[in-house]
Design a protein that fits this description.
The protein has 613 residues and is of the alpha/beta class. The protein is built from 7 helices and 33 strands. 16% of the residues lie in helices and 30% in strands. α2 packs across α3. Bound molecules: alpha-D-glucopyranuronic acid.
């Protein structure tokens, strides 16, 4: 008994100090924000010398860490004082932005960079609360304000925030963030990815000021099966969140509903109208929805639509729809680095519209919020995905918790976006018992958080009963998804484009079929025989032959070829052709279209005319 007691004591004492991140606040841009975009000071720290002492003990778990801890922003008190860093005399870097494409010396860097932002802050009202919000930080962030640890976040593509009400002061605050982008075997994603590991504060950092009791979260959607009823679930956060008056108001429909939150701060309201104009790519109609309490008025623009399957059909607002898609990585069309801005989103989605798309697959991780809000406005349905990519550690509990947390953060941020129709939980993952359990749990979590959208994952195809020219999907997870999606590279990784003509497909699942990837690499401007790899003609030939082949797939409801634009990847090193770029884009990294762009555009033009949306 005595030993057990000691054991328990030791365990409790050394439990990692990971402060719980507050419940997630959403619709950030509509709140009272102070934007910290601009130049921050930074220090490159490959040995994490500012985080650990020479015995590898974390400074932020010590009562008196001493001046070696970078998060103290220490200065010498006297000329004899020893301090071996100084943010204010260090170099500056832009936030938002990856560090790789801002500093030559950081192009391949994987490790820790410390960021510092100094600021004064005057609350608008003494009773208000203040949070520091991050759109994303790749990959792990440790956040400190005025030398105090606020918390940690893991995952490079989802938002997080920490309350600083009791720490922020009117003058001379210093916000310090340690960002570490090293890949981890137990990470999500894991060590091997076909995209650049852009590190840093890659999206907006802002202060957000809220009333003492504020609207933290809401989910407003058409009641499934009743196009005249809008359901609103609203969650308050604060000491008096319970028993709080809340109102949802849609002025254009002349409807409103009021209620009082329950003991947990939740309220469920419904409004009815026969005139609800549904959202669709052809008519991306967004309503102004206003949420009000006695302390706050929060507005959002929300579209109302339904997305369902019926056998092999995909139904948008009850009508069959073919997904004329394209896959997109989150890379700026202008800066050759991580995209993050509204302008980046607009240009990428304008190219998709020019291609004739009504659908985009945002691969392989949650893109920034501007992308999904722009898709709402421009009328593009969205496949949103977490980076459970390739060979994840399926039987590692912490890995699952990380994946589930990223899934929750993605869904809670975007579940009011009409454009998002599919949540994807994986890409090209090897079939195993542990992987099936991992993905099935993620699918259940997604359905729990959002029962109104479809669940999928990009699976892989295989030979049907040993017949190499007959392909099928043989994967237990195919029984779990709503949409049967898979990647296939016949004609690129599997033979030449003429092989497409010899292939037939046998899809046995009675579900809508979506081909989430096909493609070929081409160096823009390189021309030659259509069987010569890397020429635009080869890529054009591959698209022509693939589009003919997939036309023979029974139940095909769409495709999102790989990929809109060439993107950086450390795995693509062929000199003079790849030079660190994956060349499967229909557009080059300089914004120049390749011949295959027109092939897909023509196919989508015909598809758009076939009567389905
Ligand atoms: C895979 C994978 C992509 C990758 C692509 C390629 O299917 O999903 O992330 O970039 O193939 O090989 O280009």
């Amino acid at each position: 008994m005595k030993n057990t007691l000691v054991l328990v004591l030791v365990y409790v004492l050394f439990q990692p100090v990971i402060l719980a991140q507050e419940e997630r606040m959403m619709n950030i841009f509509a709140r009272r924000c102070t934007d910290f975009s601009g130049f921050w000071k930074y220090i490159v720290d490959p040995y994490e010398n500012g985080y650990y002492n020479y015995r590898w003990e974390p400074f932020d778990r010590m009562e008196r860490p001493g001046k070696g801890a970078f998060f103290l922003n220490a200065k010498p008190d006297a000329p004899s004082d020893l301090v071996e860093y100084d943010f204010d005399r260090s170099d500056s870097i832009q936030v938002p932005g990856d560090w790789n494409t801002q500093k030559e010396k950081l192009f391949y860097y994987e490790g820790t960079v410390w960021y510092k932002k100094s600021f004064d802050y005057q609350k608008e009202r003494a009773s208000n609360r203040v949070f520091v919000y991050f759109g994303a930080a790749n990959y792990r962030a440790e956040v400190y304000l005025n030398g105090k640890k606020l918390g940690t976040h893991t995952g490079g593509f989802t938002p997080f925030h920490f309350e600083i009400t009791d720490h922020v002061r009117e003058r001379d605050n210093f916000l310090i963030v340690k960002v570490d982008n090293r890949r981890e075997r137990e990470g999500v994603p894991t060590l091997n990815t076909d995209w650049w590991n852009y590190g840093g504060l890659t999206r907006e950092v802002m202060l957000v000021e809220t009333p003492g009791n504020f609207i933290q979260d809401y989910f407003i959607r058409l009641r499934p099966g009743d196009p005249t009823c809008i359901e609103a679930t609203i969650r308050m956060n604060g000491p008096e969140a319970a028993g709080k008056f809340v109102r949802v108001n849609i002025p254009e429909l002349g409807i409103r509903s009021e209620g009082v939150t329950d003991e947990n701060g939740w309220a469920d309201l419904t409004v009815h109208s026969k005139e609800i104009r549904t959202w669709s790519p052809e008519d991306p109609y967004l309503y102004e929805v206003i949420l009000e309490t006695t302390e706050e008025r929060l507005a959002d623009r929300i579209g109302f639509r339904t997305i369902q399957t019926r056998g092999r059909s995909l139904l948008l607002n009850g009508r069959p729809v073919f997904l004329r898609g394209i896959s997109i990585h989150e890379e700026s069309p202008f800066r050759k680095g991580r995209a993050w801005s509204e302008e980046d989103a607009r240009q990428l989605l304008l190219w998709a519209k020019e291609l004739g798309c009504n659908f985009v697959r945002l691969a392989h991780y949650p893109h920034n919020e501007h992308m999904v809000r722009m898709a709402d406005k421009m009328g593009l349905m969205v496949w949103a995905e977490i980076p459970v990519y390739w060979t994840i550690l399926w039987d590692h509990e912490e890995t699952y918790r990380n994946a589930e947390n990223q899934l929750s953060e993605m869904i809670l941020r975007d579940r009011n976006r009409a454009s998002v129709v599919i949540w994807s939980v994986a890409n090209e993952t090897p079939v195993s018992e542990a992987r099936n359990r991992f993905l099935t749990s993620l699918a259940a979590k997604a359905r729990e958080l959002d029962p109104t959208r479809l669940i999928s994952a990009a699976l892989e195809q295989t030979a049907y009963r040993g017949q190499p020219d007959v392909r099928t999907i043989h994967d237990p997870f195919a029984e779990v998804v709503d949409v049967l999606s898979f990647n296939q590279y016949i004609g690129w990784y599997d033979g030449l484009p003429d092989k497409c003509g010899r292939i037939s497909w046998k899809i046995e699942q009675n579900k809508p079929v979506l081909i989430t990837e096909f493609g070929a690499g081409a160096k823009q401007g390189l021309h030659g025989e259509r069987t010569a790899r890397w020429t635009e003609e080869y890529q054009e030939y591959l698209y022509e032959e693939t589009l003919k082949m997939i036309g023979r797939i029974d139940g095909l409801q769409g495709c999102s070829p790989w990929i809109l634009k060439d993107f950086r990847s450390p795995r693509r090193v062929l000199p003079g052709i790849q030079d660190g770029w994956n060349r499967k884009g229909l557009i080059s990294e300089d914004g120049k279209k390749k011949k295959a762009f027109t092939v897909l555009q023509r196919f989508y033009l015909e598809k758009a005319g076939d009567g389905r949306e």
